[in-house]
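Reader question, answered in our methods column.
A reader sent in the components of a multi-part assembly and asked whether the whole thing could be modeled at once rather than chain by chain. We filled in our standard form and ran it. Here is what they sent:
COMPLEX SIZE: two components
ENTRIES:
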Amino acid sequence: MIDRKIPPPIKDAIEYKLDLKPYEFYSLDNNVPVYSINAGEQDVLQVEMVFYAGNFFEEQKGIAAATNFMLKNGTAKHTAFELNEAFEYYGSYCSRSCFNETAVLSLHTLSKHITKLLPVMQEMLTDSIFPEEELATFKQNSKQRLKVNLQKAEFVAGRLIDSYLYGENHPYGTYTNMEDVDALTTDALKNFYKQHYLNGNCVIFVAGLIPVNMQQLLNDYFGKLSVGKPTGVIPAIKPIPAADKKYHIENDPTAVQGAVRIASHFPNRHHPDFKKAVVLNNVFGGFFGSRLMSNIREDKGYTYGIHSYFQNHITESAWVISTEAGKEVCDATIREIYKEMKKLREEKIDEEELLLVRNYMIGGILGELDGPFQIIAKWKNIILNNLDENYFHESINEIKTVTALDLQQLANKYLSPEHFYELVVY
Amino acid sequence: MIKFEKFNLDNGLRVLVHEDKSTPMAVVNVLYDVGSKDENPQKTGFAHFFEHLMFGGSKNIPVYDEPLQVAGGENNAFTTNDLTNYYCQLPAENIETAFWLESDRMLSLAFGKKSLEVQRKVVSEEFKEHYINKPYGDVWHKFRELIYTTHPYRWMTIGASLQHIEEVKLQDVKDFFFKHYTPSNAVLVVAGNVQVAAIKTLAEKWFGSIPAGVRYDRNLPKEPKQEAPRFLEITSNVPLDALYKAWHIYPRTDPRYYVADLITDILSGGGSSRLYQSLVKEKKLFSNIDCYHLGSTDAGIITIDGKLVKGVDIKVADAAVMEELRKLQQNGISTTELEKVKNKTESAMAFEDMSVMSRAQSIAMYELLGDADLINSELSKYQAVTAEQILEESRIIFDEKNCNTMHYLSENRDA
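And here is the structure of the entire assembly that came back:
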């Protein structure tokens, strides 16, 4: 009989050597850089065109997101319906997403259809006309969606905590109100398009089973555009953090839960503390076995889930703790969060727990390198943050070698209640 | 083509192995053939609640998560109306840790009092977060009760009410475990950087000695054929009126399932789909509209739901949806449209098969349906669907007598 009380031997994940498959790099005729990962088993392809056209570049709230969304709503030659049909006929997906610094136009398709789809993307990037009627529908539906979201405590809490950290006029802290949507005009969208897409800066990421003539295809369709290589310069906009640190907001008198957000400023990935802090964050609230989860969910049952994380920003970040907890236990939840901070400041993490976290993190990265889309996502993160391959290796090295003392010092530097904004939305 | 090998242990456990040497990882997926449809109507939400308890320690191992995390692994689980699925992923060299953990909790849980009490609270918060503290959160509780009169798809996986979770006793937990969590009720799929021979040895070593238990024979009440349209109107504290319509379709293994699935793709799912183009873009009656089904094992439903543009009369919106369905019933679809939804299916499958985790889960699901080999014949079944079948089925499915409608109205009508 086997003895089920004895665990099988394991290889510590930290003994693994992790490699990030190198990208292939080339530039189009107009100097637009292309990073490419050719890998995988399935005949699939992902093309992401990243423009520096996020809300850092807008002069009017909501313009960046609206322009990005409406890239697919009509060109001089084709209606929104026809553009959608052009992708959907081939079972392909052309999607748009707008972030703070960047805005992306991306394509997911079976590789065999690529030549049918690149011309359509080219047309969207050179000839979009932002029809009045399409904008009117967009505005109406955005407002309807906003109305529903404003009834959700978690949505309201997410907006407010960012506005406390950065101020409502900072790209990281701003949010859209009904009147901002009303104020959008086709002229404003066209101007933004002209400046940040037609004459903007772009970088392309390609991954999947890549056709041999991909470079030629990209050059044919995008190499003649008047877009250029990104300068790496993001407008410097100074955050204006709120003076008060504690907020209780009633959003819905019938609420049975509160959305709790605790957050403080944190430097970006270039700061020497960042990579070590990622490990500390995992111990604190970064995964299911973290201190916050073990205490507040698995011991007390106050919530379905509690997490801590660093905001994925380029110029500066924030350390955020986020949970939805029973209305009657929100205050107790906040007390426990601070208690866990105090423990990290006052007591060294024991080696057993630290080894668990190291192994868990390395195992996670090993799993994340599965497939071309995941590998290019790692590279994209490195490149858009103006980092290089060393960042990947140094991060892994920190996971393997950071000491309990380092982590305690970091906790003392960053995890003190006086640094944190505290918000509950009922 | 997804390759795998299958073998059975003497206690009835089905084991399937899918080798993929391109990844350093391994996936261990354990699917139990029990879902919320197997619950007592007076004790709903149990299968899902039980899923939480499966992490609260087993007979010989006080906690599940920690040893897995030490081995560089992570895991999760989900429960549906039909099944409960547990999965973990870890570096392939440590795969035995997953066998050790999964086999011990198949052998027996610890049935600790503390775990029961804490998870009762956790699930209550989950219930509140997703179904109470959100506009439209109770929609599916109400709509399912309209659509199903008899079949246990009547209630949601989370449970019909918080009260059922609050009343759970430790004895209920034990009974449920020994009834449903037996080797013959489970499918084990191992995938990734593994070898069939080694997995055979590990499976025998860790799972072979678990008692077979009594095989559970499912005998669920069948939903009678709906003979007349049903209607429900709800008024609630939501910002916008919403329309929900549902029609009964076929079980997952019925050949007509593929026709029904493609019908949902024709009606919605993209900026060039019929409902979006007509009702959102042209007529501007809805701000969003979707048509979908859930892929249920037993006879499921096709649903159309959408939120109305403020000021639109819901009767007008409802009639416009019916008008689109009539067009489909009268004129059918073009060759191009049929090609389009088949291309979409082909593409969706290729993207789904990219991750080893997703392949492992698909293999388990198809084995549950009767034969894991189905995974490799799915695409050809979609490709064989004809425009005539779509026309015929649209007439049968969208028959007036088969229709369930819920008008979910905003109580703040002028806000």
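What stands out: The first helix of chain B runs from residue 46 to 53. The longest strand of chain B covers residues 25-32.
Send us your own complexes using the same form.
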